[in-house]
């Protein structure tokens, strides 16, 4: 990948000397991101973002680097901040500053004060478009920077958590601009949520603990697309999987997929490993900790670090100590211990590298094209949530298949006539 030397930029990264390693890893990820490369090449010619200020609040990984580079190729004046304090890859952040001239404010392990300061720095950029991952930037804008709302063309959001927050803003009448629901694009949630989260979650758990999953009773809390992928991959590694759910339809689906389904209160004494993927608060609470096995492992692969009630666990614990990187043991008064991974944050990014680049290729293609759609339709869209257009979704899938060397059938003229006619019968 050809990089251009950057001028002196405002930035906050761990160490610019890490840039060569970051460049090498960004190039490696690019091998499996052919769709985004084609989009970037077109952006470089057409410059759809000339004069547009973009703030991207994302996990700063090798895959995100390709999105940031594509936006810059398209003429964007952009800035990148971390969407999670533990998800930043410091060498990637350094490379984007040093080699590509993209301002980055992200350090792995940054505290909440630093994280919130970076959100404010991003808003100081006075963005026209916000690429959000959890809607922290949009929520802060709406609550604290109302004078900047007139600058906004729109936002794109690719997490379930973020979409829930945007819907709440819309219902409360405070969302005053269009928002692209990237999360619900077929080429996003079918693949990123299911295959990306499924593989990377188990990767993070194994890197953090080196435990054998075969034979372990594993609870997956939540059976959305992320839960489906996590449960499927855990079973593939030999785990005995229990699913907990609040949605009766998803619960039936989990049963039909061959998993045991029960309330968390019943599952808590049985499991060796707990993985939360709900996007909700306090899915695992004090009453669950009290009945867990000694040494039970608890982690989260939802978005924010609120799914596990760590505040209550910490208050109850007589001792908390690091036993491995990203692995803390909480000793309880009963003498039993609970092991928490990644401080309750996204384990796939805290202890591993996040989703494989092959699935992020499609997710970030949606992000890039969602931004372009907002620019092309400036002033035409009412405030609200908008799906990625179906033709764009299918084009991304076609490009991915082509890159994989896979061909599919097309309808014959006779078939087209048949499916569009009501007069033809059996």
From TrEMBL:
GO cellular component: cytosol
Pfam family, one: AdoHcyase
Pathway: Amino-acid biosynthesis; L-homocysteine biosynthesis; L-homocysteine from S-adenosyl-L-homocysteine: step 1/1
Cofactor(s) recorded in Swiss-Prot or TrEMBL: NAD(+)
Enzyme class: hydrolase
Main localization, broad class: cytoplasm
Domain S-adenosyl-L-homocysteine hydrolase NAD binding: 193-354
Keyword terms, alphabetized: Cytoplasm, Hydrolase, NAD, One-carbon metabolism
One GO molecular-function entry: adenosylhomocysteinase activity
Recorded catalytic activity of this chain's protein: S-adenosyl-L-homocysteine + H2O = L-homocysteine + adenosine
SUPFAM superfamilies: Formate/glycerate dehydrogenase catalytic domain-like, NAD(P)-binding Rossmann-fold domains
Residues the record lists as binding NAD(+): 159-161, 193, 222-229, 245, 280, 301-303, 348, 355
InterPro entries per record: Adenosylhomocyst_ase-like_sf, Adenosylhomocysteinase-like, Ado_hCys_hydrolase_NAD-bd, NAD(P)-bd_dom_sf, S-Ado-L-homoCys_hydrolase_CS
Details of cofactor binding: Binds 1 NAD(+) per subunit.
Keyword Hydrolase applies: yes
Binding site for substrate: 61, 133, 158, 188, 192
Localization (cell): Cytoplasm
Highest taxon in the source lineage: Bacteria
EC number(s) per entry: 3.13.2.1
Assigned protein family: Belongs to the adenosylhomocysteinase family.
Stated name of the protein: Adenosylhomocysteinase
């Amino acid at each position: 990948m050809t990089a251009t030397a950057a001028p002196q930029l405002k930035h906050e990264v761990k160490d610019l000397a890490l840039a060569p390693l970051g460049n090498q890893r960004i190039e490696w990820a690019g091998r499996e991101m052919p769709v985004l490369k084609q989009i970037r090449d077109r952006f470089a010619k057409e410059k759809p973002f000339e004069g547009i200020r973009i703030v991207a609040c994302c996990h700063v990984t090798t895959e995100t680097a390709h999105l940031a580079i594509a936006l810059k190729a398209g003429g964007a004046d952009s800035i990148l901040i971390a969407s999670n304090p533990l998800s930043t890859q410091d060498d990637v952040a350094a490379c984007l500053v040093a080699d590509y001239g993209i301002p980055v404010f992200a350090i792995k392990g940054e505290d909440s004060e630093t994280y919130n300061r970076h959100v404010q720095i991003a808003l100081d950029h006075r963005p026209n478009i916000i690429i959000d991952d959890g809607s922290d930037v949009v929520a802060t804008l709406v609550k604290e920077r109302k004078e900047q709302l007139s600058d906004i063309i729109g936002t794109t959001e690719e997490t379930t958590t973020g979409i829930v927050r945007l819907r709440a803003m819309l219902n409360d009448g405070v969302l005053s601009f269009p928002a692209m629901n990237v999360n619900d694009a077929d080429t996003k949630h079918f693949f990123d949520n299911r295959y990306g989260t499924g593989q990377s979650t188990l990767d993070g758990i194994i890197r953090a603990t080196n435990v054998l999953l075969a034979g372990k009773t594993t609870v997956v809390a939540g059976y959305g697309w992320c839960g489906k992928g996590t449960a499927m991959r855990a079973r593939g590694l030999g785990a005995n999987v229990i699913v907990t759910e609040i949605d009766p339809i998803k619960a039936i689906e989990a049963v039909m997929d061959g998993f045991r389904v029960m309330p968390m209160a019943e599952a808590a004494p049985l499991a060796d490993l707990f993985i939360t993927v709900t996007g909700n608060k306090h899915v695992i609470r004090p009453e669950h900790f009290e009945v867990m096995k000694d040494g039970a492992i608890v982690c989260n692969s939802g978005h924010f670090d609120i799914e596990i009630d760590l505040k209550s666990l910490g208050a109850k614990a007589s001792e908390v100590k690091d036993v491995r990187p990203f692995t803390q043991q909480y000793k309880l008064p009963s003498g039993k211990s609970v092991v928490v991974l990644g401080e309750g944050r996204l384990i796939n990014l805290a202890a591993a590298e996040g989703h494989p680049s092959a699935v992020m290729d499609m997710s970030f293609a949606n992000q890039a094209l969602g931004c372009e759609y907002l620019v092309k339709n400036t002033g035409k869209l009412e405030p609200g949530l908008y799906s990625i257009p179906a033709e764009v979704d299918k084009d991304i899938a076609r490009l991915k298949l082509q890159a994989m060397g896979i061909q599919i059938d097309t309808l014959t003229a006779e078939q087209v006539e048949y499916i569009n006619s009501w007069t033809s019968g059996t």
